Amino acid sequence: MKKDKNPSADATELRRRAEERLRADAAKGASAGAEAETQRFVHELQVHQTELEMQNEELQRSRAEVETWLERYTELYDFAPVGYLTLGRDGTIRLVNLTGASLLGVKRAQLHGRRFGVFVAEPDRPAFNAFLEKVFTSQAKEVCVVALLKEGSGPITVHVTATVSQDGQECCVVLADITERKHAEAETKRLASFPMLNPRPIIEADVAGHVHFCNPVAEQMFPDLYQRGVGHPWLSDWEAVLRTLREGVAKSISREVHFDEKWYHQTIHFVDDGKRVRIYGADITARKKVEEALQKAYVEIEQQVEKRTAELRSALAEIKALKDQLEAENIYFRQEEKMKHRLDHIIGQSDGLKYVLYRAEQVAPTNTTVLVLGETGTGKELIAAAIHNMSPRKDRPMITVNCAALPANLIESELFGRKKGAFTGADTRQVGRFEIANGSTLCLDEIGELPLEVQAKLLRVIQHNEFERLGSSRTIKVDTRIVATTNRNLEEEVRKGRFCGLQTNWRFHPLPCHPP
């Protein structure tokens, strides 16, 4: 219905038309003899009457037009394909069309005064409340998608468009049902992502563990999968899988499972908004066998490497020990060479000298400990060297230790060696004379000068052929022959408590350098 742009102009036009009709009627039946005043008064009444009649006709036409438009508006409003609601600031429903009431599953008369938020699904309710608050705050059109709890049926998904009214106290909401579209999108996505021709097994199950889909490969590999569901070994620990996915520990689970003498790799994740679980599988039995073979070979190689490394370390340790021993032997080499030359010049025909050499020749081939007695300057070291040179150990140099020339606090480390840091000033490891003389002869010159505490350790070496370096607890085994010399009367020293040698199982072979 169109509205007049100028009401006063319309009224003037209406009066003009009424006057023309009156004059026409008056021309036909008016009495020429009526009085002028009466005619004017009657004329005015008739004009007003005509005006009212014409206004009434106009109002009738306007009313008919308004009713036509109202009927059309009502039809458009109530039977529109979308739901129309008017909500207050607190979310109370003030107006709703029939489509909106149908979307909510409630009669329109029962919706007035109810909060729209109660129809929003619980997971979306906080988001919708924030959306409604944003609509009134921004004073602009806002949109969102929520799930509605339609009474008498399942939830539906709607697209919401909201606009604030001019007074800011209400908002107009348009609801468009997109449930079918969402289902179609999900189904399209599911079908598009479900590779029926994939050469590997693929399975879909709901959260209860019931299998709904599987590709032909899965059906062929696991023919009882539909019946057994999560009871099948391929879908074991179902609750743990769901818990891991729901807690968001990982978006997907990647793992290996073993059953029926085969290995499978699985990739598991949610689909269809968490309503279903999809499992992608792959038979990796051949790969696992190769990996196991490689692992076995690797372990064997590692063992071989460890064995060879241990052997190499042992060889290096032995080489180092031999190197240390050679370095120590070189210290005595020239001295021993001199001794050999001196042995070549032992000249004498006395019975005493012949007796000493005879006894040396007797004891030399044995492995027994020998004690050479004699005064200072009688050549005890020459006899010790002679015994060594006539023994099976002659190919290695004899090591000599002058017990009288070494301080008491150093004699032990010289004999047995020391570990680095064994005492203050021990900055390096030292190999002892016993270790250097391993496989050879050790001459302890002037053994009677040894301190008593060193004598006790010396006895252990003679009895058990083993000792420990200073500062170390590792026992070292040696094969060292001892030839000792002294100018003291050891039996007298034993009686006085200054020597403990005769209290052991030493086998004494006194070899005086003069006739007995």
Helix content: 40-55%
Assembly annotation:
single chain
CATH class of the largest domain: Alpha Beta
Annotated CATH homologous superfamily of the largest domain: P-loop containing nucleotide triphosphate hydrolases
The whole-number mean of residue pLDDT values reads 79
| Shape designation | rod-shaped
Structure description:
The chain has 516 residues and is of the alpha+beta class. The protein has 4 domains: 7-78; 83-182, PAS domain (Beta-Lactamase); 194-283, Beta-Lactamase (2-Layer Sandwich); 319-503, P-loop containing nucleotide triphosphate hydrolases (Rossmann fold, 3-Layer(aba) Sandwich), CATH 3.40.50. It contains 15 helices and 18 strands. A 5-stranded antiparallel β-sheet has the order 2-1-5-4-3, sandwiched between helices. Strands 7-6-10-9-8 form a 5-stranded antiparallel β-sheet, with helices on both faces. A 4-stranded parallel β-sheet has the order 11-18-15-12. Helix 1 (7-29) crosses helix 2 (36-78), helix 9 packs across helix 11 and helix 10 (351-363) crosses helix 11. The longest helix has 59 residues, at 285-343. The N and C termini lie far apart (162 Å). The model is unreliable at 1-5 and 502-516 (pLDDT under 50).
